[in-house]
Amino acid sequence: MLLGALIEKPMSAYEMKKNMEARNINSWVKISSPSVYKNLVAMNGKGYLDDEVVKEGERPAKKIYSINEKGRNYFFSMMEKYSKQPDKIYIDFVAFVANLYNVDPEKGLEMMKNLRTNLSKEREYIKSNIEAKKEFVPFYAISILELYDKMYAMFSEWTEEITHDYVQKNNH
Questions:
Q1: CA triple 49-51-55, angle to 5 deg
Q2: Per DSSP, what are the bridge partners of residue 20?
Q3: Most exposed: 62, 68, 127, 128, by fewest CB within 10 Å?
């Protein structure tokens, strides 16, 4: 994400953080403000970025990062890699489901309801983002949010099935 943003235009770590927030990227990619700074410094150290210290008027100096040829090559090699070999998807809550047998059935059912409720809340949040930003953000951002909407719909359906099976198993 960071290299792609720097292909668009050079920017400081603070501008990058604001850019990520404005584009609501943290809704669909695990990225935090500290990791923006940390990763820019790391990529700069690996030689993927150039930096220039700029001072504007009375403001403190800031470091502006820009992607260089080595960074562009790395960016495009990563794009190629992920298009040919997507990573496995790990879903944190499956560990919870896999351990349901270790809790009291009544408590387990309550926990499953909590999971379904929170998955529904996440889906509603994503749907509201799609509607609110549809005309202001690039198509790829909307398509990624739509992917998450579909995933949350599938997760909700799956948790209903699991809850049903869980109730059936614990009533016998």
A1: 155
A2: none
A3: 128
Phi-psi region of 79 (alpha: psi -120 to 50; beta: other; left: phi over 0): alpha
Here the tokens at position 160 are: 């209903």
Closest alpha carbon to 63 in 50, 76, 72, 73: 50
Query: How far apart are alpha carbons 99 and 87 in whole angstroms?
Result: 25
Note if the pTM is more than 0.85.
no
Residue 153 domain boundaries: 93-170
Distances (CA, A) of 155 to 84, 108, 112, 130: 26, 17, 12, 19
Q: d(Cα 40, Cα 36) in Å, to the nearest integer?
A: 6
- Which residues are 50's β-sheet partners? 66
- Among 57, 84, 111, residue at a domain's last position: 84
6 & 76 share domain: yes
Which range has the worst mean pLDDT, 8-17, 134-143, 148-157? Answer: 134-143
Last residue of a domain, one of 30, 49, 84: 84
Alpha carbon distance 169, 172 (integer Å): 6
